[in-house]
Each structure stands twice: as C-alpha cells, then as structure tokens.
Amino acid sequence: MKHPKRFFSVIISIIVVILFSCNDREISYETYVAKELATGVRNDSLIYGIHFGMTEEEFKSYCTGMNLQKRFMPNPRGTAVRLKLQNGFGAPVVFDFFPVLQSNKPIRKITASMKYRDFSYYDKIYDIGNLVIEAVEYFEDGYGGNKFIAIPHENRLIKHKYVKIDGNRKIVLNPTFDGQGLQIEFEDLDAGLE
Length: 194
Prior knowledge:
Helices cover about 30% and strands about 25% of the residues. It has helices spanning about 5-25, 30-40, 55-70, 130-145, and strands at about 45, 50, 75, 80-85, 95-100, 110-115, 150, 160-165, 170-175, 180-190. Strands 3-4-5-6-10-9-8-7 form an eight-stranded antiparallel β-sheet, with helices on both faces. The protein starts with a helix and ends in a 6-residue tail after the last strand.
C-alpha cells in the first residue's frame, strides 16, 4: 500500500456515511405517530363493518344483526364477538374482539385476540411465528396502506410486537408469552374524534 493514511481515511468516511444513513432510516414510534396524524387521513373501518365512532348501542345492534346472519358468534365465555377465519391462514383461526366502552362515548379502541382454532404445541403449523406472518399479511392485504413495523417487545423473551399506523388508525399485533396467539389492539389516535 502506497498511501495507508488515505486508505484508512476513505474507510472511516465510508463507515461514517453508513452509520448516519442507517440512523436516518430508523424512525421513532413517536415520530411515526406524529407523521401519520399530520396527514389528516381518517381510517375508521375496523372489522366487518364495525368502525371507530360507533356508539355502544350501534355496536350492539350491528352485532345482533350479524349474529342473526350467523356471521358473528359469541366466544365461549360470552365476553367477546367471535369470527372464524380460514382464508389467508394455513389452518383455521379464531378471532375474538370487543370494544373498550366508555359511557356515552364513541368507540375509539377495540381489543382482540387471534389464535389457531386447533392449536397444539406439537404441530409446527401452529407455531406463533407462522401466525404472526399470516396475520401481518392478512391485515396488510385487508387494510392496505403502510406495512407493519417491528418494535421491541416489553418482554425480552418475545423479541417484537408489530405496529401499523395509517392516519388515525393504529393496529398492534402482540405475540403472547405462552406462544398460543396474538393480542391485537385497534386504536383511534386522533383525540379530536369526541
């Protein structure tokens, strides 16, 4: 090597450029939320005709109608609405959901869970990794817009949870510690709804 100082300065310059360009691509959760809310876009549709802004009475009336059509069923404990999903999943899935109700206020949050109907620890088709991949694809195909991003999970044994924000609508897919399913949250991030 004729010019070792020049060689090392070029290498260091390349490393600095790479480090700064990587930092530019990382976006904090707060920045992500602010960026999406700044678009002014409202996405109120949630699950099979249920939407942000429904009242408790509208929700109950709608679910009763869907139950009469055999589209919605109560879960075994009677605490949530249950859907059975097949399309887009390697095995049948049950999806339970119910809004967080606050007296006389429109629905702004729905909690849900998803798991394989015939879950077994002994069959690899029911692996939580498969469910995460299939759920991400299912929601991205169904809602369009932004892709899910992985963010660190509070539990270090579970590496990530997955967040998708489109305008005001946030969807979080949170793998459970027992590896059986996902806890899901739909939330309206726009406080101006009320």
